[in-house]
Amino acid sequence: MGWKALSLWTGTPYPVMIVTTESMVPAFFPGDILFISNHHRNVEVGDLPVCWLPHSAFPMIHRVLRVLYEEKSNPDLTQLILTKGDNNLIDDTLMYPEGQDYLPRSQILGFVRGYIPFIGWFVIGLQDFRWLRELVAMSCRGIGLTH
């Protein structure tokens, strides 16, 4: 219930995320914990949106490189966003769905609002090392935290 409440408060289904790649170095490193919110506003160059592309197993957090506007019907304007990882040589166009050169604002789940460095390595370790996960579970049973 706590996660659901946090999701409602931040306006995104993923209010906390852990960096797992080096695409945003030096801004973020693997193991950094990111805090995300999605309060409706226009996207600006330099923002750090969280996008979950249809063919991806994980969300992508890259910096906004360019913002354009597409007029669908007067007077509504749709923001189109081009992203790029700080540590990548090229923009993310190749990662977008086929035939799509930009992301519409509707494909953004939220924006990075803050972070804590390196603490996420514990969670990454639990996912990558079965023995560590079992050790933590046994420790919790030993002190009465699980049944």
Please, could you describe this protein's structure?
The chain is α+β, with helices and mostly antiparallel strands. The protein folds into two domains: 2-116, Umud Fragment, subunit A, CATH 2.10.109; 118-147, no CATH class. It has three helices and eight strands. The chain has helices spanning 2-10, 121-128, 130-142; strands at 16-18, 33-37, 49-51, 60-61, 63-73, 76-84, 103-104, 108-116. The strands form two sheets. A five-stranded antiparallel β-sheet has the order 1-2-8-3-4. It has a three-stranded antiparallel β-sheet with strand order 5-6-7, with no helix packed on it. Helix 2 crosses helix 3. It starts with a helix and ends in a 5-residue tail after the last helix. 20% of the residues are buried. GO terms for molecular function: signal peptidase activity. Belongs to the peptidase S26B family. It is found in: Endoplasmic reticulum membrane.
